[in-house]
Write a structure and sequence with these properties.
The protein has about 450 residues and is an alpha/beta fold. It has helices at about 10-20, 35-40, 50-60, 70-75, 95-110, 125-140, 160-165, 180-190, 205-235, 240-245, 265-280, 285-300, 300-310, 335-345, 360-365, 405-410, 425-430, and strands spanning about 1-5, 25-30, 65, 80, 115-120, 145-150, 170-175, 200, 320, 350-355, 375, 390, 415, 435. It starts with a strand and ends with a strand. The chain binds nicotinamide-adenine-dinucleotide.
């Protein structure tokens, strides 16, 4: 099938590439010429495991192409995915300007039947707005061309995005147009050969499903963080509690890890947007999610709080930070807890040497040229002259470090672990002071 993907970011590039991988003819459009230049030169603008090889393979096979030419993109695909960003507006609601601009471009330039598929995370009712925007453009041109609009939220996880797209848990299709549903069924058939994973709903339910999924996951994290903070005060160990509750199949082990707060491009903005949609469009105050957000905002400062209660004044102190990305296997630092931590440390007069296997270029873009932040080529090198090691992202390479070397390099043998990577008894047995979350 001929597919166009509008927006070549994390979601668009992964979706487009995976669709090409199963034989579709895919054209990815972006308004950022730099992204398209990198892709045309054989690189990829993001870090995502397995993606680079898949992109190369499909470009070489001629099934995957990139462009900044809107006209060519609209002409190309019968199916037009919209996978542009929906960042939070100033008031927390999702900013739909990019989605609606993409829809208008399609309406302005289409000459034959199109199925416009919204893959961006968008508030309930956006499907209708997309439909209206396209219809408006067609009317301005004085033409009548049939089109369908589908809501198809994406559930991939950064860091495992290719695997998630190739083997989805579910594919949610929100539409009322039989022809569009038929096309979507055919498009997704190669990804669900083992058994049907398509859930066909109305458009509003599909849109709300995506927000509800992220809100539930964020809730589990904030709940565990709150339990961890309580366990710590009461002298209990949250890791034991995690196992004790996770073994209940109604609860399960997934997403029960306490830490120094959730970040990323989705949970914080989607929780905010859902709270806003509920209050503005339905007159409902979402009490649980409001608390989830508040708990998370506090949790992002927990490592600084631990340092302050350990050292008192942090002025003139120097800290090593392991991990900058909001989670492992990505270079994405949107809303990453490391950003709040580093800002806190700067505000308290401390300096930082950071190490991350893939996100240091992104950090230098965010923090710019700041003499208070240095980067190191290896985790061990980052420890030199540091008053403590702070662990912010649970990269695999941090899981079993040489504790003797850590102790030898740090000025104070202290690890403040925001991801509970180690056994406290073991680390303390090595003569290292160990502060973790909820233990
Ligand atoms: N990142 C994730 O893990 C993830 C997972 C599921 C859903 N989502 C949702 O998917 C959407 C995209 O997220 P992302 O992380 O891929 O964003 P992103 O910022 O990485 O990519 C968006 C891209 O769209 C481009 N763009 C903006 N307007 C455009 C236009 N009119 N025409 C063409 N290109 C345009 C931007 O230049 C950018 O490259 C968001 O709504 C997000 O909430 C993201």
């Amino acid at each position: 099938m001929k597919v166009t993907v509008v927006g070549t970011g994390y979601v668009g590039l992964v979706s487009g590439t995976c669709l090409a991988e199963v034989g579709n003819d895919v054209l990815c459009l972006d308004i950022d010429p730099e992204k398209i230049r990198i892709l045309e030169e054989g690189g990829i603008p993001i870090f995502e495991p397995g993606l680079q090889d898949m992109v190369r393979r499909n470009v070489e096979a001629g099934r995957l192409n990139f462009t900044t030419d809107v006209g060519a993109a609209v002409r190309h695909g019968t199916i037009q995915f919209i996978a542009v960003g929906t960042p939070p507006d100033e008031d927390g609601s999702a900013d739909l300007q990019y989605v609606l601009a993409a829809a208008r471009n399609i309406g302005r330039l289409m000459t034959d039947y199109k199925v416009v598929v919204d893959k961006s995370t968008v508030p309930v009712g956006t499907g209708d707005k997309v439909k209206a925007a396209i219809a408006d453009e067609l009317q301005k041109r004085g033409v009548e061309i049939p089109f369908g609009v589908v809501s198809n939220p994406e559930f991939l996880k950064e860091g495992a995005a290719v695997e998630d797209f190739m083997r989805p848990d579910r594919v949610v299709i929100g539409a009322d147009d039989e022809q569009a549903i038929l096309l979507m069924r055919a498009l997704y058939a190669p990804f669900q050969r083992n058994h049907e994973r398509l859930i066909v709903t109305d458009s509003k339910s599909a849109e709300l499903t995506k927000y509800a999924a992220n809100a539930m996951l964020a809730t589990r994290i904030s709940f565990m963080n709150e339990m961890a903070n309580l366990a710590e005060r009461l002298g209990a160990d949250i890791e034991m509690i995690r196992q004790g509750i996770g073994s209940d199949p109604r609860i399960g082990y997934h997403f029960l890890y306490p830490g120094c707060g959730y970040g990323g491009s989705c949970f914080p903005k989607d929780v905010k947007a859902l709270i806003k949609t509920a209050s503005d469009d339905a007159g409902i105050r979402l009490k649980v999610l409001t608390a989830v957000e508040e708990a998370n905002d506090d949790q992002k400062h927990i490592l600084t709080a631990k340092l302050k209660s350990r050292f008192g004044d942090l002025k003139g102190r120097h800290f090593a930070v392991w991990g900058l990305a909001f989670k492992p296997n990505t270079d994405d630092m949107r809303e990453a807890p490391s950003r709040e931590l580093i800002a806190d440390l700067f505000a308290a007069g401390a300096t930082v040497t950071a190490y991350d296997p893939v996100a240091m270029h992104e950090a230098s873009r965010i923090f710019g040229d700041d003499s208070r932040l240095r980067y190191s080529n290896s985790p061990m090198e980052a420890l030199n002259e540091a008053d403590a090691l702070l662990i912010v992202t649970e990269w695999k390479e941090f899981r079993s470090p040489d504790f003797d070397a850590i102790k030898a390099r740090l000025k104070n043998p202290l690890i403040v672990d925001g991801r509970n990577l180690y056994d406290p008894k073991f680390v303390r047995g090595m003569g290292i002071e160990y502060l973790a979350i909820g233990r």
